[in-house]
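Still learning folds. Look over my entry:

…
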Amino acid sequence: MSSNQYQIHAAIQDFQSARQRVALEEVLARLQGKSTQLLSYEEVAEKLKLRARSERGIQQIPLDAIVGSVGRYSDFTRTFLPRREEDQERWARVKTAAEGGAGLPPVEVYKVGEVYFVLDGNHRVSIARQEEAKTIEAHVIEFKTDVPLTPDVQPDDLIIKAEYKEFLDQTHITNLRPNVDLSVTIPGQYEKLMEQIEVRQYILEQERGEEVPLRDAAEDWYDNLYIPLAEAIRDRDLLRWFPQRTITDLYLWISENRAELEKEEGWEIQSNIAATDLIMNKSARAKRKKSESGSWRKARMLNRYTENLFMDVLVPLSGSPESWDSLEQAIVLAQREKAKLHGLHVVDSKDKLESPFALEVQEHFKQRCDEAGIDGRLVIEQGDITRKICERAVMTDLIVLKVAHPPRGGLSSFTSPFRTILTDSARPLLGVPEKARPLQRALLAFDGSLLSKEALFVATYLAEMWKTKLIVFTALESGKVKTDAQDYVRRYLEVHEVEAEYVLAENDAMQTLGKTVDERQVDLVFLGGYTGSVLREVVIGSSLNYMLRESKVPLFICR
């Protein structure tokens, strides 16, 4: 056997080996939910309306970025394994020529986005892939597109890419906002985005009294509707629960579920932060992770400087005479914050949902909100009141609740519904022990813990935005709080240009705290939630439980 015949024979064996790997590749692809098909350039060009082309000359291109072919996309797999038995002779000749140093010309490819389609040289690409080469010399002709095409694109993705192309052509959003990324993973989503833009176009035309171009409506939609919610999704790192989705996927999901939930629950969900929390309720993975301390503050850090901190306030009402104190206190807050009040009346059976008493509570709530000029609505639900409050709280920014049955001492405190709400709810709580107060003089109980820093965040906001007078109280009892705890507060308040009065207590912390509240005529106390050990709370007692039992002024409790 001559040397040339030996090379051809070896090349044929390599071809047969490559052909045998086709079946294995297809099985693995099915298990992974992927396709082994090369993309058809003709189909891509039609869907993306490729027109303008540019010569890019001879260059080395990555082999794994070649995802399709012009005319021969069915002859090879996605990794360029040969599918057709009749290609054996030609494949072997090309491989023999390549090994013999015949100087094969560069392949010719079309470039679209970040991927390439073989115009001439499919067998050369196939052989180079089997030889595990990383690059190949190619003559490149590029077709311009605004649609991002990457090497991992699948045939089914072309539908989405085509829809994206049409959406971009209609809205010109990439011209208006060059860095825009509205990629999705599900077909049919761009039609939904277009519907939102068209609604926005109609609203703008009604406001301006003139025709508004679609591109202007798209720009307004992007800046005022899409970006705020997309930033909330990004800031809260919600994509970690949905690793195969994009921000635009979640934006649409929230938009749709927000409308559905508003209809189902009878509430308007104003806050983008609250809307993103819908995901936490819907995602099984997210449910398994309890809301961490500090998450509320981090999620609202941007709101802290751009809008009011409390846009949606939950007000549970039993309908008893004293329960209306919480509504009056919520009205004081809502008038300052321009907030919407969400009333909640829970009954224990279905036949009470439309009882005269429940409807009377609903009507009184509406009447009082109307008198105060507050946007508010109360819903009536059946179920366990503690669980319903925690469920509803996730759609709001704050719970305002009457302190009717505060936790007592010892083990009995752990059965308190009020304590359960404090520990299980993902929102801070404003407890109202007596009549509503104007919230003009606040005391911050600060011990340097994470939750007291949450309280500092809100107290500083009120001092800045409401001009609330602030007193910082720190107890050094038993050496558990470092003497420099107030130094942290001083530095924090100086940055925010807030002045405060400072009080240090070395003994009898609980009694001194109560005395300070009375002497300074405080009408709001900021506290962190439960942070100590269960044993200490049972044996020694909790300062929070003490204040819930003894305080006559509202308590803002952070978690």
User: Anything to note?
Assistant: The longest helix spans residues 3-31. Residues 51 and 404 are 72 Å apart (CA to CA).
